[in-house]
Amino acid sequence: MSQALRDSNSSKFQVSEFILMGFPGIHDWQHWLSIPLALLYLFALVANILILITINQEATLNQPMYHFLGILAVVDMGLATTIMPKILAILWFNAKVISLPECFFQMYVIHCFVGMESGIFLCMAIDRYVAICRPLRYPSTIIESFVVKATVFMVLRNSLLTIPVPVLASQRYYCSQNQIEHCLCSNLGVTRLSCDDRTISSIYQLFLAWTFMGSDLGMIILSYALILHSVLKLNSAEAASKALSTCTSHLILILFFYTVVVVISITHSAIVTAPVFPVLLNVLHNVIPPALNPMVYALKTKDLRQGLGKVLRLGIRNN
């Protein structure tokens, strides 16, 4: 009888939906953030579409490095589109309610795309390592099949290893609290509402971070250490400068991406005086790279810049 009563009370208080409250501490004026966020999102979509069109149309860009850049553009647009429409709906229309399946699906897709972005950065680092340290082997090593195999591996790795994140979160018991002080369904933000033990979810989140980000970052650092060692052995300062210049755009994006990931992890774990900071940083981390990546590559890569100029001139002429 007592067990039946407990089951009855459990079903009575089990939540059926979550409410995304937005940015904590600034609910009264958070709608003003919709303007810069919407502009960033629009710029990210336009810039990445232009990058894809340019890579597709310019024969000189039919190289593995630009194929990876095209894949990165698709991942960036997917990541931004996963979160921005809902965030803008919250800020513009106060549409804060999200169903449990939608929330867990968003959690899954965000983890997939962030892991994919990390993986593509690793593939680009390997590409630069072979091009600079093993130039004679580059034409036979970094070929189209390498791009396809690396991409398929990254997709399978992230799509499969990420499945336990929403599954473990969905198995938690959410008894009464359903207000998430966030703009999106982050794993930590959601599982904090559970009334039972979330240790397994936290451990797997940590395991995933080390598996994805830790291993990727470690191999990227190793690749660039070998690149730097190889460049320092060059007798010509001009040749060394030219070799390093091909890596600058990639390094800028890597530094931004992983620095923000580390800061988000620290601020989420620590007690911060302004809780809006980690939430805002988390949102910006999912929308700034999609806008920043094509801009940095367009400015730093001569062939891409020239190809982009041709596409834009052709578009203006046709109009």
Order of strands in the sheet with the most strands?
Answer: 2-1-3
CATH class: Mainly Alpha
> Into which percent range does the helicity of residues fall?
over 70%
CATH architecture: Up-down Bundle
The CATH fourth-level homologous superfamily: Rhodopsin 7-helix transmembrane proteins
Largest sheet: 3 strands, mixed
CATH topology call: Rhopdopsin 7-helix transmembrane proteins
CA-to-CA gap between the ends?
76 Å
Domain G-protein coupled receptors family 1 profile: 47-297
Protein name: Olfactory receptor 56B2
GO molecular function: G protein-coupled receptor activity; olfactory receptor activity
InterPro entries: GPCR_Rhodpsn, GPCR_Rhodpsn_7TM, Olfact_rcpt, OR51/52/56-like
Features:
mainly alpha; globular; three-stranded mixed beta sheet; 13 helices; single chain; Rhopdopsin 7-helix transmembrane proteins; disordered N terminus; 319 residues
Please tell me about this protein's structure:
The protein has helices at 2-13, 34-57, 64-93, 100-133, 138-141, 144-161, 164-170, 187-191, 199-232, 237-245, 248-269, 276-300, 302-318, and strands at 17-20, 97-99, 179-180. The protein has 319 residues and is an all-alpha fold. This is Olfactory receptor 56B2. Its main location: membrane. Keywords: G-protein coupled receptor, Membrane, Olfaction, Receptor, Sensory transduction, Transducer, Transmembrane, Transmembrane helix.
